Amino acid sequence: MARDVSSQFAPSWYSAFEGSHVQSREQRMRAFVRLWRAFMRARVFIATVLLALQVFMLVSQTGGPNWLVVVCSAHLCAALVTLYLWRPAEQAAPMHVQWLLTIGVDVLVFALLQSFQVGSINYTALFALPVLLASILGSLTLALATAASVTLYLLGEAALHAPLFSELSTARFLQAALTGTGFFLVGVLANQLAIRLAREEALTASSQAAARAQAQVNELVIESLTVGVLVVDPHGVVRSANPAAQAMLLGQVSPQAAKLLLSARSSWQHLAHLVNETFARGEALETETTIDNEDRPSQRLHARTRLTAQSGRSAGLCVLFLEDLREVEARVRTEKLASMGRMSAAVAHEIRNPLSAITQANALLDEEVQAPAQKRLTRMIEQNAQRLSRIVDDILNVARAQPSQDTTSAPSLPLDQTVRQIAHEWVRQSKAERILGVHAHAPAAHVGFDPEHLRRLLINLLDNALRHASGKPSSIRLITQPSGSEHVRLSVWSDGQALEASVMRHLFEPFFSSESRSSGLGLYICRELCERYGAQIAYRRTRLDQREGNEFYALIPAASPAPTREPTQQSLSYPMGDSVATRAEHQGHPLSGDAPLATR
């Protein structure tokens, strides 16, 4: 039959701390030193009492030999030295020197006092101290050895002080045997209880460490969530709120956790009502709500509540989750983009076939017509059909996430001249003669960009600026200027309102827009076109002519070395090293500009 290991006595109370799954050696040593100090203080107290007793008996002439005072004094000195000067060593062997200086000295002193006592004073009970010391701080073997030595002494002392085989001898032997048996039981029970308590202490310490680690992990997870999480008590007091929730309610992350009251602001009343309803009904609720802020744009949120379990008489807590509906809609739009990728093949088939037919029919018609006006019409059809074909190809490339084509053969375009032509065409189509101001400061710069792609890039940025600009004269600026020796900066500035932080995080994502009627593909296509030609597009909030505005700019690699001389109209000071479109930039970079120029 297999032996039950769990029923065997552990060799020492240290076994509760041993193994790879429990505490370290430092923790075991701290626990050992703590108990060691407690026992050493008890030894000092008992030694002091014994010395005082021997001095009293010496003065009253009722005690034993006078040298017992010297023995008690030496015992007290040894106890003090052990307490304050001796550094306890962790158990390695039962016969370690520290056991001889503590257990051995105590047994010897108590035996001398018991052997040379005078009167009715009995020191037998003091032997319990070394037995307990060996049982709790030492191994079971040391505890049994100490109990055995005390029992042998008691039996020997009974044999020396009573006639053999007399009634007094029998009683003294029986008393010594019973006392020794009691010491054995005390040793075994104390050793096992110490092991059990040490094991429980180790388990508690391990559980506390695991709980602290889990709490830290939970805090990190909650703090990194984009969903706002608030813990609210039945009185409407917010006990805890993660940074996302603080940003939604306060507009900024508070450095210190401050208690908030949901009923403190009128814009939070609907949230307080939702929490009260949750406590009243005792079930989870959810709703869509809007927070109207005085200094910030209003936010549409999806709020849902969950109740924690109640413990005893104390009421539970309500966990309130806040989610920005704009981000939810952005995820939905991203899923739509994936669906569009799956439909791209069918779309290409349905659009390209009629487009090819239109192109062929227009070519046949162009051969038959002779009038200049009709020729002009056929050329317009051909140009727009080719433009539509390129747009279809670009959209399909974006939808299918195909690798971009080789751009080494892209033509080298004079930037300022091309920008003026595109701006003139856009002004004519959008009827924005007085709104747009063109600042061309890179007359010698060339960029490797497909003309149609550059036109689409600028048209998308200008259309986006027109939707958010105030419409005042020169409320939109189109600016070009060199940026170092290898790049040219092309920027579109408008005097629109500052973008929200939630909008800036998803600015260049597909199907994300702050307007319900917009497709949300304009800025995404701009980024894709820039990345195709090695350019970088970004956004920042800037000041131009003492007016705050939004700037979208692209850093485009120069097709030829940038001019070494300073441009004649160089009056704009742009900071270098701006961030790319993958992150939103900070505010507060002042810009100075020329007077508004008419579109040329």
Structure description:
With 600 residues, the protein is of the alpha+beta class. Helix content is 51%, strand content 14%. The protein contains 14 helices and 14 strands. The protein has helices spanning 25-60, 67-84, 97-115, 128-137, 140-160, 167-224, 243-250, 269-281, 325-368, 372-400, 415-430, 451-468, 501-505, 522-532; strands spanning 228-232, 237-241, 260-261, 286-291, 299-307, 318-324, 412-414, 436-440, 446-448, 476-483, 487-494, 536-544, 547-557, 589-591. The strands form 3 sheets. It has a 6-stranded antiparallel sheet. It has a 6-stranded mixed sheet with strand order 8-10-11-13-12-14. Strands 7-9 form a two-stranded antiparallel sheet. A hairpin with a 3-residue loop joins strand 10 and strand 11 (487-494). The longest helix has 58 residues, at 167-224. Mean pLDDT is 78; it is low at 1-23 and 561-600.
